[in-house]
Amino acid sequence: MFKPLTSLYSYKFPKVITYMLQVSEYDLWNYLKWLNRTRDFSQIIKRKQLVYTSKSKLIYGFLAVVFILQILFGLTLIYLGLFQHLSGGIYFGLATLISYPIIWPYLIVVGLLVVKILIINPQTINNNLLAKKKFQEFSGIKIAVLGSYGKTTMKELLLTVLSAAKNVEATPGNQNVAAAHYNFSQLIKGDEDILIIEYGEGRKKDIAKFAQITQPTHAIITGLAPVHQDHYKNLAQQADDLISITNFVSNDHIFANLESIELKPYISNTFKTYNRERVMGWKISDIKSQINGLSFKMTKKDQILKLKSPLIGRHLIGPLALVAALADYFGLDQKTIESAASQTKPFEHRMEPYELNGAMIVDDTYNGNIEGIKAGLDLLKELKFKRKIYVTPGLVDQGQKSHEIHFLIGQLIAKAKPDRVVLMNNSTTSSIQAGLINEAFKGELIIENEPLRFYQNLNLMFAKGDLVLLQNDWPDNYY
Amino acid sequence: MKTVLVIFGGQSTEHDISIITAINSIIKPLEMTKKFSVVPLYIAKNGNWYYHPRLKDLSLFRSGQVDKFLSKIEPVKIGLSQGLNIFYRNKIKNQKIKVDLVFPALHGTKGEDGALMGLLEMANVAYVGCDMPASAVAMNKVLSKQLAQVNQIDTSEFMWFKKADLEDQSLEKIAQKVKSKLKFPLFVKPAHLGSSIGISRVKELPDLINAIELAFYYDDLVLIEEEVPNLIEVTLPIIGNQKPQPAYLERPLLKAGDFFDFKTKYLSGGKKSGGQKTDQTSQGYSEVPAKLDKKLYKQAEDLGVKVYKIFSLSGIARVDMLIDAKLQKVYFNEINPLPGSLYAHNFQKFGISNVDLVIQLIDLAFDKFQDNQAVQKVFSTNYLTQF
């Protein structure tokens, strides 16, 4: 009962507020929503720690100083009220003492807004202009990779395969917003053959904004699924945003994922499409999907490509086939493509398999969308293991469709028939449970209240011969 | 939800090892199941028994602040009538915990040697692991070798001495006796201790005297035995009651001449093995499963299971064996009725996770308890009427 109250007046409170801002990526709207729904601030810092950047240090230091000043001011007023008969001194002093942790978490937002308007925004405008100029000057191929999921994977596949014969550069890691594009533009030397630029849309008109700056010659739309529903009103808005790429790239240079059910209605006949059956005139056959990777054959008239990759999951056949087809289109020979495809590897936390104490773990904790969940569960269903364990907290940012989507996830889990399901307890858990019940799930269900502790002790739960699929992992601000 | 009491710590040389076994290998996996209410009961080195939820947290013990923490709480009281009950006082009032099952995590004296099991038998509460008689025999290295021999199980040649023997004869005289009957090198062991505490390997008479003195420091019964030549040391963790299920035969890896002493096991991370690709477990480096000739592996496995049955072990135990690689002969060495960290690393490799291991052990404990309840223990007589 007292914990929520005492957490406000804890010496850790300035750190907690700074952490909340940092984890919200200084998105003030998300921060305010988190702030307003939080009652007990002692439970905030659980999964990570505050990273001491110059920005966080400044905010943390500022909050600590103003807290101390306000406390001192309050004490002074009380002293003056008690001993110098300052009228209202005691009451104002008490109010000042009580109010500091209530007002400053909001006042800091005002401060940050002012900084954003006066300093950051002009700087961003200038950076965008510089980036635009740099991309304009680049005469080679510029491939934009966009979509609600699978962007980073697609970008890395392109980079690995095309780099086998071309000078290719790509935006690093999962850095995919305007600031990252500016940083990337500053690294371009001009002698590259191909640039690969990832677009991480999070708000309306982001894609158009990124395209205006980077001016792509080609675009790949990897899929559509509900994400960032806090900023997009609905999926149609999200789709419109993705399709706005047609204003910058000609339709015959746009490659769209035909396996994305939600994207399908928006795919124009004039787009090029890809899936696990066909891509750019190539036919895909002889598919083998195992825990140690994928293999398949691509044929186009008298051309044959036999591809093998350590990537796992049938959902990656389409993207890998597209990359091979594009490599052929850009002039890479058969041997180079086949060799480069074998060099592709699972990416960190994305369907990344590894063996641990005799068990096979598939780390898909960066997955954050329904299509990815489906792909993982398809894999779980397909693979033969002594015992299968499935772990997920569900998906974030699913907006009004959250119940519907998580009910579906519950059904999909039940159909994949894992022996044990571990759900991290949160707002989506009851919907997943309802889906499990609806599909008559017969395995063991564990509801975990302490995700961090669970992941730290995961090793205790599996043994030789087990397959463990970990899908999605929520940061603190979603619990 | 069943209440499981995990008892750990204890007045034993293996106090600290018990804390690791309890928290890492029992409490954490039990809590992951969400099927049990797990109650930690810590026996401090001074003999006081404590309950507090924070005693599930290893960082409290690692911080070195545990004594300070314990000074703020009252020791518990134990009730043995109608099952096992724990009485403690929280900030406001006295509280009672009714225990459904006890998971002992005490190593060594007063815990693994049957003493605790006797108490639990008196309370008529279900508990995990070997019962009092089996534990008492298993933890007595002399008795267990004698029992093995009676059952035609090979052991190395051995002698034993009680502390009382020192009243009639000097250490030197005992050592001379040993020298005349056994061949060096020899192992000198306190008969009741686990975790290799107080054990010495000696090659000559003066060292033997020191080793016997050291062993008597820890125990009043000392075992002296011949070293098995061309030695391969193996150990076999087993679970089960009437139908024992062995996990993998495991081979601790040591350089020639080294033996698995306390430091190698728990403090140096088993660094004596040197650079080989093996598993580092809580027990140091080892090879799981042991890479032995198929026939020899089976021979050792069968011997381990035979010992488990002959000693009427239950729940979990580990049987240690010595192999003469040249003669391809397996000798029984000793039994550990509560292997450190439950040997969960071995069971995990075998295909039983730590979570499943503790669940199985609890099921076995309830099965055994049910069987015991079916045995008639009291009956009415007219005996008292004659007085």
Could you characterize what this model shows?
The complex is a heterodimer of chains A (479) and B (387). With 479 residues, chain A is an alpha/beta fold. Chain A has 3 domains: 3-121, no CATH class; 139-343, Mur-like, catalytic domain (UDP-N-acetylmuramoyl-L-alanine:D-glutamate ligase); 352-478, Mur ligase, C-terminal domain (Protein-Tyrosine Phosphatase, Chain A). In chain A, 44% of the residues lie in helices and 18% in strands. Chain A has a 6-stranded parallel β-sheet, sandwiched between helices. In chain A, strands 11-12-16-13-14-15 form a 6-stranded mixed β-sheet, covered by helices on one side. In chain A, strands 7-8-9-10 form a 4-stranded antiparallel β-sheet. In chain A, a hairpin with a 2-residue loop joins strand 8 (282-290) and strand 9. Chain B is an alpha+beta fold and 387 residues long. Chain B has 3 domains: 2-129, 3-Layer(aba) Sandwich (Rossmann fold); 157-226, Dna Ligase, domain 1 (2-Layer Sandwich), CATH 3.30.1490.20; 229-373, 2-Layer Sandwich (D-amino Acid Aminotransferase, Chain A, domain 1). Chain B is 35% helix and 25% strand. Chain B is built from 13 helices and 19 strands. In chain B, the strands form 5 sheets. A 5-stranded mixed β-sheet of chain B has the order 3-2-1-7-8, with helices on both faces. The N and C termini of chain B lie far apart (48 Å). Classes of the chains: A alpha/beta (479), B alpha+beta (387). At the A-B interface, strand 15 of A face helix 1, helix 12 and helix 13 of B.
